[in-house]
Amino acid sequence: MSSKEEVSTNQHGLKVAFLCPDAFSVWRFYGGLLKRLKALGCRVHIICAHGEEVALFLNEGFVHEPLMLNRFVNPLADIRTLLELYRLFRTERFDVVHMGRSPRGLRGSGGSSERSKDLGSPTLRRPALAAESCRG
After folding, report:
1. How many domains would you assign to the chain?
2. Theoretical Cys-Cys bridge with 105: which of 9, 51, 97, 132, CB 3.0 to 4.6 Å?
3. How far is residue 103's CA from residue 42's CA, in Å, rounded to a whole number?
4. Which of 17-21, 22-26, 101-105, 114-118 has the lowest mean pLDDT?
């Protein structure tokens, strides 16, 4: 990425949500990505369950949004989690939602919507940019 691209990305201070079931996976597998996003001027919120690594998030200046995510299908718990995520997404109005290991992107993409109208960027449109990655 060139420095011009970095500047254009940062001028709006993108608000990024990173969604993953556990703090260990976030820090061990995605720590470098999260640090790079922060260095580019993004405001990064990590949405995951509590774990020992949460102290590392906070020391690095990330925001931790505690949320218990189930790794396996459980309809009642999934509905509860979806409602919690919806409330969080409506409150925080994230520009980008990245999901690491969430089942088929259902949880993260359900609540993210239409933040990009005021950004003036052709790459961010309704719904907000959502990405999913599977590692491990």
Report:
1. 1
2. 132
3. 25
4. 114-118
